[in-house]
Amino acid sequence: MYVFIAFLSPAVHALSCIVDAHLSNNVFEKIPSLVFYATISNILIIPFLFLFGTPVLPPLEVLTVLFVIACIEVFYQIPYYLALRNIDTSIVVALFSLGKIAVPVLAYFIVDEKLSFWQYAGFALIVSSGFFLNFDLKKCKLNSAFFLMLIVSVLLSLSTVLSKYSLQNIDFVTVLFWVSLFATIISLLFLLFYQSRIDIVSCFPAYKKKIKLFLFNELLNQGGTFFETVALAHLPVLMIKSVNASQSIFTLMSGFLLYKLFGDQFKENLDMREMIKKLISFTVIIVGIGLVLR
Predict the structure, then answer these.
(1) Cα separation of 218 and 224, whole Å?
(2) Please, are residues 248 and 90 in contact by the beta-carbon 8 Å criterion?
(3) Is 181 exposed, middle or buried (0-12, 13-18, 19+ CB in 10 A)?
(4) What are the E-state strand segments in the chain?
(5) CB-based contact 66:179 (threshold 8 Å)
(6) 122 and 289 in contact (C-beta within 8 Å)?
């Protein structure tokens, strides 16, 4: 049962990424406006947090860490949405796996922690598969999305480490409250820049029209995190991380089903040759993650 719940997390998050791709490619022309509206929508979760407890004012050191997490939560979206405009959604999701290699690699350089042969092999599989998915043979050029998602993955890995540090000092309600609050305040700073302010104001009708989609996307994000938390309470961390690696496959499957239902409204190449190429690469990435985490 809990294995099934664990698989619900990447399945739900996969659908959320498809919604992100739709908003980035079809609704908003400029990325800062999309980041602004996506971020302020997150504040809607704050009232629900009080159902689980009351946030407190943490120590200044922890509060500073929470502010850094909020900065990451806002600004990682810029390269993320740019990547969604450059390559298929399922490939973007697969490239989140680049973050899985950040921790052991940083550990090697910072504390001289040696990796095993199989971890190095897993590292090579992840990087080579990501490279293969983004290398254009005709132009002999690596897609910029590879580097954009490398930035995103490293930032999110740092955010995860900082969140773990925060949770050792305060409860999750306080963490979510302050991160959501800080992220909203940071996004409001976009209004200080004239060009951004003009575009944000002009995009408000589009946001108002799509607000149900934004709320649905927020529900998907929170739902995916909820399923992962429930599964994490009953299953090994290693199993959860391995299951989460299947998100790219769920994205490809969801994209195919949505194409059948709504037509070509989502950024996903569903040509049979491309799908086989993706499935092989995604499988290799999953194997690579398993080796890195062993």
Answers:
(1) 10
(2) yes
(3) middle
(4) 135-136, 141-142
(5) yes
(6) yes
String of DSSP letters for 182-239: HHHHHHHGGGGSHHHHHHHHHTHHHHHHTHHHHHHHHHHHHHHHHHHHHHHTTS-HHH
Chain-centroid distance of CA 47 in Å reads 23
- What is the rounded distance in angstroms from the CA atom of residue 171 to the CA atom of residue 138? 52
Q: List the one residue out of 120, 143, 147 whose CA is nearest residue 132.
A: 143
Separation between Cα atoms, residue 196 and residue 140, nearest integer Å: 36
* 218 touches 44 (CB < 8 A): yes
Burial label for 24, CB within 10 Å (0-12, 13-18, 19+), is buried
The pTM (predicted TM-score) of the whole model is 0.80
To the nearest 10 degrees (0 to 180), the angle between helices 60-75 and 144-167 is 160
List per-block mean pLDDT (blocks of 10 residues) for the chain, which spans 294 residues: 78 86 86 90 76 85 92 92 84 74 58 64 72 62 76 82 80 84 91 89 90 86 74 63 73 75 65 75 74 64
- Tens digit of each residue's pLDDT (9 = 90 or more) over 48-58: 777 777 888 88
Question: C-alpha angle 113/125/291, rounded to 5°?
Answer: 55
Torsion angle (degrees, nearest 10) of CA 281, 282, 285, 291: -120
Decide: 122 and 54 in contact? Cβ < 8 Å: no
In whole angstroms, give the CA distance from residue 163 to residue 60: 15
* Residue with token string 């629900």: 48
The count of C-alpha atoms lying within 13 angstroms of the C-alpha of 136, restricted to the half-sphere facing its C-beta, is: 11
Helix and strand element counts for the chain (H, E):
16, 2
Q: Would you give the end-to-end CA distance of the chain in angstroms?
A: 24
